[in-house]
């Protein structure tokens, strides 16, 4: 029976225990609610599970018949079982709407980092090249979910969702340009926000003109707060590459920097001329060919993320100019998420203390957590 199948999944198949429902359904195709020993052995042998690696096993269990890729929906049964059984997520069981958002966020993070083609179809090759299987094994062994920073951390989900909630003032789960421009205390330029909404880096999943969905926001915030990662470099490269010819020219860099220069003047900051900035960028990247920068050039340099901050994130650019340690040691996603989680938690505790117990309970019905 299904309730007894978890042990088979983990001890016999050596798969993460939260794959038991997906594996059970794959064998029990007629939905009898029972998998016999013979049926299990028949499936395992006919699917050649004994001779393939775990990534291939996972791929075969999750994918739909006659497909050669995984979609986001294919991961839902695994996340549902994880939420139902993992001790580190037990506290969410009374709030199904937040369980759903946690599951969505995990899946979006998986596809952001692993589905490098960005087409929503995760191939076996992409799965094998990733660390997802290893991370899933860690999740199965670790009771504290927040120790698993990649993909599954509840704290990371909390930060992403709260950031979205703060911007989504009408709570319709859609953001427009004016919503997004408020991100990070208006740290981004209008020109880069316009490029995001032109869907240059990623086609929006919202299907509503001029609106960004929660999924689109997850991709944005991961790209913005971890510019050291290759998916982030690809995301922002597409934004800056105005003509889509695969190279960044000085005129394209200048187009985005002009607004930064204007903002510095408005703040009475000493302006840094574009000519000086261009020299800095070239020194940091050392492009293979003079006159333009390719995505390959950016991926070779450890300082590439700073270039995008120079062009469209004023707060991070000013930190760069002041030679903050942030210059060399890019604030990566894990550090950002931890800092923001602590801040958000302190704000929540402060509000609860000032409002009193009754009011804080009422408030919790409206706030995301």
UniProtKB/TrEMBL annotation:
<dbReference type="GO" id="GO:0005509">
    <property type="term" value="F:calcium ion binding"/>
</dbReference>
<dbReference type="InterPro" id="IPR011992">
    <property type="entry name" value="EF-hand-dom_pair"/>
</dbReference>
<keyword id="KW-0106">Calcium</keyword>
<dbReference type="Pfam" id="PF13499">
    <property type="entry name" value="EF-hand_7"/>
</dbReference>
<protein>
    <recommendedName>
        <fullName>EF-hand domain-containing protein</fullName>
    </recommendedName>
</protein>
<keyword id="KW-0479">Metal-binding</keyword>
<dbReference type="GO" id="GO:0000159">
    <property type="term" value="C:protein phosphatase type 2A complex"/>
</dbReference>
<dbReference type="InterPro" id="IPR002048">
    <property type="entry name" value="EF_hand_dom"/>
</dbReference>
<dbReference type="Pfam" id="PF17958">
    <property type="entry name" value="EF-hand_13"/>
</dbReference>
<dbReference type="InterPro" id="IPR041534">
    <property type="entry name" value="EF-hand_13"/>
</dbReference>
<dbReference type="GO" id="GO:0019888">
    <property type="term" value="F:protein phosphatase regulator activity"/>
</dbReference>
<dbReference type="InterPro" id="IPR018247">
    <property type="entry name" value="EF_Hand_1_Ca_BS"/>
</dbReference>
<feature type="domain" description="EF-hand">
    <location>
        <begin position="228"/>
        <end position="263"/>
    </location>
</feature>
